[in-house]
Amino acid sequence: MPGSVFALMDAAKGRARAAGLSVIDLSIGSSDQNPPEPALEALREATRDPQTYRYPLFSDTRPLREAAAAYLGRRFGLRLDAETELLPLIGAQEGLAHLLLAVTDPGDTLLLPDPCYPPYLGAVAVAGLSVVTLPLPPERGFLPDLSAVPKDIHPRALLLNYPNNPTSAVADAAFFREVAEWCRARGTLLIHDHPYAELTFGDYRAPSALEAGTEGVVELHSLSKTHHLGGFRVGFAAGDRHAVAALARVKGAVDFHPYLGIQRAAAVALGLPDEVSRAGARIFEARRDALVPALREIGWEVALPQASMYVWARVPGLTDSVTYAVRAAETTGVALSPGQAFGEQGEGFVRFALVQPPEVLGEAARRLATVPVSVEPTLQPVAP
């Protein structure tokens, strides 16, 4: 099981606090915004309803499934069957782990981007899969080159994530059509992790992979980022009815569905006007607009993200991002995620989570200007 970069950075933050430093924690992408008040009120009311105290069965999830179908229709123009093509999740991370167990056998091949969100590696390990990595080079906009996949590789699934964590890269609908066609020609299931669907900036709007058709495509949605319900652990899977049915069978063997009160809150959140999520996105956009120029002032190479809640920054001359990130936390109190923790292709980068106000992000950049890049490695590399 891969080690956790979050645990490593948590220890470094503890040492910084013990040394009397004020910590600016930009290492974890947990939204600091409040959930929508109507969703919270629905949850409050549910806690007073004895009908919500029992184990929730599949039939009890219909209101949330219908709300998810309506959201997908309103937002992406999709028409999904709430009975067979949608399934609530106890968070998208749980959904992915169980989906891999549902649609693969041990030893099957998974195509996995590099860099990628580290918990993907844990889900892969639990499922016993063989991984073939797909580099996401900056010169391609952090998009994979599927033509480079060896002809003798027969992947059972391909996992993608756009808007992307950690790179903040985006993909258009044409990209998903091309990828879906490539997967269908090979009998490969396309899994798209889509937690940042509404965290987009300016005129950009993220498409859904399901716009390329539901056959052979499963998309995982989460309300953690789009509606700031991270601690509530709720999301949904949508798409290919056979894959969704397989996921339901696995989940039925190991867990019940989210608490009914949380389901009610999520259904309310999904039905709110789009402006609610857009307002949250504008907060992250303002933070992006504060941090990127501040990092460029200290000589870092930073693209201006179109989406997500991260800034992916190449640090000039950096060859050991783990040691650098720990040193930065210990000496300045600024906690980042080292790029190497997301995969070999992440070396030389660090990831900022936009979870502090603009003025604090500016202060973080000023502190980082004092941290030397060339330091003697003192730590073992973190497995991605």
TrEMBL record:
Species of origin: Deinococcus aerius
Gene3D superfamilies (UniProt xref): Aspartate Aminotransferase, domain 1, Type I PLP-dependent aspartate aminotransferase-like (Major domain)
GO molecular function: pyridoxal phosphate binding; transaminase activity
InterPro entries, A to Z: Aminotransferase_I/II_large, LL-DAP_aminotransferase, PyrdxlP-dep_Trfase, PyrdxlP-dep_Trfase_major, PyrdxlP-dep_Trfase_small
Keywords, alphabetical: Aminotransferase, Transferase
Signal peptide span: none
Aminotransferase class I/classII large domain mapped to chain residues: 23-368
Pfam families to which the protein is assigned, alphabetical: Aminotran_1_2 (PF00155)
Cofactor section: pyridoxal 5'-phosphate
Protein name: Class I and II aminotransferase
Top-level taxon of the source organism: Bacteria
